[in-house]
């Protein structure tokens, strides 16, 4: 069973990954290809967060699974936006 503290801490890390990715998305929109490394790093961070959420969900209770599911949707939405803009 995932503890409340571990889920809360992980959700905070996901929020930080989203903020970093949004910053890189904004920078990428302004600078085109000049921040390629950071942009790719942000995308990888989002992918890692999605994978970690999937793993953490296995040991979460119903309420925690709902929180993790909503966070996963946010992560994937931003990830998709970044991929579409990049291509």
Automatic annotation (TrEMBL):
It comes from the Bacteria. This is YtzC family protein. It holds the Pfam family DUF2524. It comes from Metabacillus rhizosphaerae.
């Amino acid at each position: 069973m995932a503890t409340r503290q571990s889920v809360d801490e992980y959700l905070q890390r996901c929020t930080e990954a989203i903020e970093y990715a949004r910053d890189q998305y904004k920078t990428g929109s302004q600078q085109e290809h000049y921040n390629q490394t950071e942009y790719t790093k942000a995308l990888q961070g989002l992918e890692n967060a999605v994978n970690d959420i999937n793993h953490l969900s296995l040991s979460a209770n119903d309420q925690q699974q709902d929180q993790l599911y909503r966070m996963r949707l946010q992560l994937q939405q931003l990830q998709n936006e970044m991929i579409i803009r990049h291509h």
